[in-house]
Amino acid sequence: MKCGALSLKNISFRYHVEESNVVDAVSLEIPAQKVTAILGPNGAGKTSLLHIILGFIKPHTGQVLVAGKPHSDYSKQKISQLVGLVPQHETIPFNFSVFEYVVLGRSPYLEPFQMPREADYQIANQILGDLGLSRLSRKPVTELSGGERQMIHLARALAQQTEILLLDEPTTHLDLGNQSRILSALRDLSVQGITILFTTHDPNAATFIADNVILMNKGRIVEQGSVAETLTEEKLSAIYRVPVLVEQHNGRVMVMMK
User: Fold this and answer.
1) Which of 30, 43, 113, 124 is 20 to 30 A distant from 200 in Cα terms?
2) Which among 86, 114, 90, 110 has a CA at the least distance from the CA of 186?
3) Is the full-model pTM beyond 0.70?
4) What domains are defined for the chain?
5) What would the DSSP string read from start to end of the chain?
6) In whole angstroms, what is the distance from residue 35 CA to residue 213 CA?
7) Cα angle: 127, vertex 129, 133; to 5 degrees
8) Which residues lie closer than 8 Å to 237 by C-beta, 6 or more apart?
């Protein structure tokens, strides 16, 4: 597979029969080797959509295509080699070192009960170096700050060496410095040819790196297109139900509350 791409065709899903759809008739084309942001308020259905793409949950209607083939055509192991996830929250049950945790990303390439190979360790070391995390290699994951933990979640996903990377609210609860590090790392990955799809409720995270923006609310796609086309005062005010100001600053769109 030379480049990653996702197609969603008429996807609908609800968690309980008596409830309304949390994802409702969603059809999308995620362009390869670009950064796409799914933007919307809390409860818009963004996380559920990512879980459907990964196969964690099965849609009631519709189909997901990965690199032009139905998701159901792939084994779980093969999907894990094609699509990686950086979750918003992840419980790590054991007191792994950072290096041990990143090596877990090599699991899709190992047989059951097979130990990592020397090549797997080299890949983990390389990724930690590329992200500037080598100094944390021996540190227990439980002792990391929030920003450090989010970076090693990214490192673990990169160890999978997928060409499609999904991230669920990657900058939530991070300070400005760590937000910048995460978003800059994603922009660099896109330049290297990785397809990036991330969810966010922060319009400014989308303006920072996204080539394409999808506006989502109440399970539906409201708008999609470039930053300039989608992040307008009218559209954002309607989604977030508060007055929003959109301005240009040094050639970049900035979104603020009025």
Assistant:
1) 124
2) 86
3) yes
4) 6-257 (3.40.50.300)
5) --S--EEEEEEEE-SSTTSPPSEEEEEEEE-TTSEEEEE--TTSSHHHHHHHHHTSS--SEEEEEETTEEGGGS-HHHHHHHEEEE-S-----S--BHHHHHHGGGGGGS-TTPPPPHHHHHHHHHHHHHTT-GGGTTSBGGG--HHHHHHHHHHHHHTTT-SEEEEESTTTT--HHHHHHHHHHHHHHHHTT-EEEEEES-HHHHHHH-SEEEEEETTEEEEEE-HHHH--HHHHHHHHTS-EEEEEETTEEEEEE-
6) 9
7) 95
8) 243, 244
Q: Which residue has the tokens 């080299």?
A: 122
Determine phi and psi for 131, rounding to 5 degrees: -90, 5
222 token code pair: 């409201």
pLDDT in tens, 181-216: 889 999 999 999 999 999 999 999 999 999 999 999
| Other CB atoms within 10 Å distance of the CB of residue 94 | 9
